[in-house]
UniProtKB/TrEMBL annotation:
Stated name of the protein: Methionine synthase I (Cobalamin-dependent), methyltransferase domain
MF-aspect GO terms: methyltransferase activity; zinc ion binding
Short name of any one Pfam family annotated for the protein: S-methyl_trans
Residues of the Hcy-binding domain: 2-288
Residues that coordinate or bind Zn(2+): 207, 273-274
Species per Swiss-Prot/TrEMBL record: Blautia obeum A2-162
Record keyword Iron present: no
Length: 289
């Protein structure tokens, strides 16, 4: 996909997929393991989930490469398998794509903050993203999704790294509080403006809170950028049950109604994050189509 093709798609409401991690855990994935290798060993589970998202109306599915960067894989002793892991996971999603369905190479934060006197630098972030994005691009993804980002500087490194190895569109979403503030400092509006200037093709938010709490954030982002705005929130705020599991109380119909408000407020690239299922994407599709 070219950047121009992406912009044309986003002129109408572009529907992304919903959650991956929370659905994998519901399907039996244990805590504390390497998600990427578990998915490789359970191809049927991830493909059944993505097939259901496509049936529900998703036009973009995220390849399950979320934690496939070198720094994360090193924690599991798997850095030497980075190419194999990412290429295999992309292939699972590509087997289901086509006919108007696109595959995004999913990347995320290292979990570290880039600071002037820190142990983690822009150069290290750039190298980490450049390596993974090159593998994903070679594996045949259609676009890049940098999601659940917690540091503006690290996200800028991802955008720069993408531009250094390919011409694919890159979507960037920060995880924010209801007031738009970012955990590591700054806010979603500042991030969106900086990322557009750096060359991002769409900007916005994912994870954190529900769509009912993000109207002003989405509206403010829309008023400050000229590229598409993304909204991929959770199914409301979770409650932790006695077993330590996150329980989301928002139902699919309520989620869709709140998402319609976000679309009216300026979001044109929409989907769901933690707690959402194919039923949420179907409700979203049905309320806007």
């Amino acid at each position: 996909m070219t950047k121009e093709e992406f912009q044309k798609l986003a002129e109408q409401t572009l529907i992304l997929d919903g959650a991956t991690g929370s659905n994998l855990m519901a399907s039996g994935m244990p805590r504390g393991i390497c998600t990427e290798t578990w998915v490789i060993d359970h191809k049927d589970i991830i493909q059944d989930l993505q097939r259901a998202y496509i049936k529900a109306g998703s036009q973009v599915i995220y390849a399950p490469t979320f934690g496939g960067n070198r720094l994360n894989l090193e924690k599991h002793g798997l850095a030497d398998r980075i190419k194999e892991i990412n290429r295999t996971l992309v292939s699972y999603s590509k087997e289901l794509a086509g006919n108007g369905v696109y595959v995004a190479g999913d990347i995320t934060t290292s979990g570290s903050f880039i600071t002037a006197d820190g142990d983690y630098t822009y150069a290290e972030a750039f190298d980490m993203y450049q390596e993974q994005i090159r593998i994903l691009a070679d594996a045949g993804i259609d676009l890049i999704a940098a999601e659940t980002m917690i540091n503006i500087e690290e996200t800028l490194a991802a955008v720069d790294a993408a531009a250094s190895v390919c011409d694919l569109p890159i979507m960037c979403t920060m995880t924010v509080e209801a007031d738009g503030s970012i955990f590591s400092g700054g806010n979603a509006i500042e991030a969106a403006v900086s990322l557009e200037a750096a060359g991002a093709d769409a900007v916005g938010i994912n994870c954190s809170v529900g769509p009912d709490q993000l109207v002003s954030v989405v509206r403010n982002i829309r008023e400050n950028v000229s590229i598409p705005v993304i909204a991929k929130p959770n199914a409301g705020m979770p409650v932790i049950d006695d077993s330590g599991n996150a329980v989301y109380s928002m139902h699919a119909g309520d989620f869709a109604r709140h998402m319609k408000v976000l679309i009216k407020s300026g979001a044109s690239v929409v989907g769901g994050c933690c707690g959402t299922t194919p039923a949420f994407i179907k409700a979203l599709h049905d309320i806007i189509r």
